[in-house]
């Protein structure tokens, strides 16, 4: 049974600007494991990863029904790429299954999170 659905659309350049202006941005948005993956990328791909994690966590909070920062924060959700590149939610406050999807254009990232229980 679907318990929640969240989608988000984010401008990649906006997230890049935030990261450039605020040195603590990476620590605020990415978990330690996500930062390790992020540092494995360079250039546009690194920005896509960062914007993707921001957007995925926003989608999760929307699916959770609260929005980010209210009942769930950026550090409460961890989403790592599988070795094939699929985003996998490895930590969250939700006890059921969490399905994640991310798609990029040159300037946008679109994400979706589905929360599911038996």
Describe the protein in words.
The structure is a single chain. This protein has helices spanning 12-21, 25-29, 32-38, 43-64, and strands at 2-11, 78-81, 87-91, 97-104, 108-116. α1 packs across α4 (43-64). The chain is globular and about 40 Å long. The strands form two sheets. It has a three-stranded antiparallel β-sheet with strand order 1-5-4. It has a two-stranded antiparallel sheet with strand order 2-3. It is an alpha+beta fold and 118 residues long. The chain has a single domain (2-116), classed as Ribosomal Protein L22, Chain A, CATH 3.90.470. One of its GO terms (biological process) is fatty acid biosynthetic process. This is Holo-[acyl-carrier-protein] synthase. It holds the Pfam family ACPS.
In percent, how helical is the residue content? 25-40%
Secondary structure tally, helices: 4
**CATH fold type:** Ribosomal Protein L22, Chain A
Strand-pairing-aware structural class: alpha+beta
Class, according to the CATH hierarchy?
Alpha Beta
What is the architecture at the second tier of CATH?
A: Alpha-Beta Complex
Q: What is the strand content?
A: 25-35%
Q: What is the number of beta strands?
A: 5
Low-confidence stretches: none
| Inertia-based shape | globular
Query: Main sheet, how many strands, which sense, barrel?
Result: 3 strands, antiparallel
For the termini, the CA-CA separation is: 6 Å
């Amino acid at each position: 049974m679907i318990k929640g659905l969240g989608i988000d659309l984010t401008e990649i350049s906006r997230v890049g600007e935030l990261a450039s202006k605020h040195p603590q941005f990476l620590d605020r948005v990415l978990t330690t494991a996500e930062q390790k993956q992020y540092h494995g990328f360079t250039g546009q791909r690194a920005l896509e990863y960062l914007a993707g994690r921001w957007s995925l966590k926003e989608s999760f909070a929307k699916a959770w029904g609260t929005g980010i920062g209210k009942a769930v924060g950026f550090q409460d959700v961890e989403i790592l790429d599988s070795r094939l590149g699929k985003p996998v939610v490895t930590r969250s406050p939700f006890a059921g299954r969490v399905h994640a999807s991310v798609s990029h254009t040159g300037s946008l990232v679109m994400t979706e999170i589905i929360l599911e229980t038996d």
